[in-house]
Design goal:
The protein is α+β, with helices and mostly antiparallel strands and about 375 residues long. About 25% of the residues lie in helices and about 20% in strands. It is built from nine helices and ten strands. Strands 1, 2, 3, 4, 5 and 6 form a six-stranded mixed sheet that branches. Strand 5 and strand 6 form a beta hairpin. The protein is globular.
Length: about 375
């Protein structure tokens, strides 16, 4: 495919309306400064995972996730799909600040650095607060400041991570009326991907994604990753609707899980059944994956979630071809896998701790 054609397909103006990203991202660092950018990000996030000593405010890191494999098991009678997937939380994330509003306040307040992100009850943050009050009987109202870094329409669960972080924060600020198990169970009522963040960080998820089984990280936490996302987002409902069940992988999910632990993230194990509808809708995404496989230093390359982010495993060095003008609007970021300690939320990693293996089996 000619590169000019790739540029046209990745252009928001030429994308299907439902796939256009509403934000013009400017996160991507110059390609020769990726490692410096990663170090700078660690320093910037150093305070993001710290909690205030005050009982009325809290600062938390809100991580994203990737799907190391994603099998679609069946299309259900209710229109949803049963899946089997290895989710893993990563160190790319947003910053969230929570505080209690004065007694008598009648509504929550949400602010965001992206003006196009809705701050009304359609946002998962507000949905999470409403869910928390409904389940616990709490009457508190909250002020939430959301500093977004995770791209929209990326398949990395940025909004789901925000919702999970909000449930955790509300529970902390209200004196922990709920257990972590309660939060996990309730979260499935407002989104399928939210539950994974209440795992230890590595989870084998089934059902719609809300059935979470903690697993030991089958891939080393110091494995370098590179995240590459075009400026075009993909609509999750439309990708699932376009899924051709006859073109799915036949790999057994449990076999994929066990083989990953012994063989590492080989290309044949990083299966994503949603690549088919995503690549059908956006052929340039398949071309990007192919070029990353051919010209990158990766052990495997795959799409995460319903796209449009492509993940390169084994290196966080961007291939030279990504310097081309046709790719100048791509979001590009190094990343690592992370887990959380029992009883704590995810800590934004420091540069020194980025390759360390924290305790797993969080509760």
């Amino acid at each position: 495919m000619p590169m000019s054609s790739l540029a046209m397909q990745f252009s928001k103006q030429n994308a299907p309306a439902s796939f256009r990203n509403t934000h013009r991202f400017s996160y991507a660092q110059p390609l020769n400064t990726h490692h410096k950018a990663r170090a700078d990000r660690f320093i910037f996030f150093a305070n993001a995972a710290s909690t205030s000593n005050s009982a009325s405010s809290l600062n938390l890191f809100s991580p994203a996730k990737i799907n190391i494999f994603l099998r679609i098991v069946r299309r259900r009678e209710d229109g949803f799909h049963d899946l089997a997937s290895l989710f893993h939380v990563i160190d790319l994330g947003d910053d969230m600040t929570f505080s209690l509003l004065p007694a008598g306040s009648t509504s929550d307040q949400l602010t965001c650095n992206f003006p196009d992100v809705p701050t009304d009850e359609s946002n998962l943050v507000i949905k999470a607060l409403n869910l928390f009050r409904r389940k616990t009987g709490a009457t508190e109202r909250f002020n939430v400041d959301l500093l977004k870094r995770v791209p929209h329409g990326a398949g990395m669960g940025g909004g789901s991570g925000n919702a999970a972080t909000t449930l955790w924060a509300a529970n902390e600020l209200c004196g922990r009326p709920a257990t972590a198990e309660h939060l996990l169970e309730w979260s499935g009522e407002i989104g399928s991907d939210i539950s994974v963040f209440f795992s230890s960080g590595a989870a084998y998820c089934t059902g719609r994604g809300e059935i979470v089984e903690d697993v030991a990280p089958p891939v080393s936490l110091d494995t370098p990753l590179l995240l590459i996302k075009p400026p075009v987002g993909l609509s999750t409902p439309e990708i699932f609707k376009a899924l051709d069940l006859t073109r799915r992988s036949t790999a057994d999910p449990r076999d994929l899980l066990s083989r990953l632990a012994t063989e590492g993230p080989a290309q044949e194990l990083c299966v994503n059944d949603l690549e088919q509808p995503a690549f059908d809708r956006l052929p340039a995404l398949q071309e990007l994956k192919s070029r990353l496989q051919e010209q990158g230093e990766f052990t495997s390359v795959f799409m995460t979630g319903s796209g449009s982010t492509i993940v390169g495993v084994g290196s966080d060095k961007a291939p030279e071809f990504l310097k081309g003008a046709e790719y100048n609007e791509l979001f590009i970021s190094p990343a690592r896998l992370i887990v959380r300690k029992p009883g704590e939320w995810y800590a934004a990693p420091s540069s020194a701790a980025a390759a360390a293996v924290p305790a797993s089996g969080a509760a």
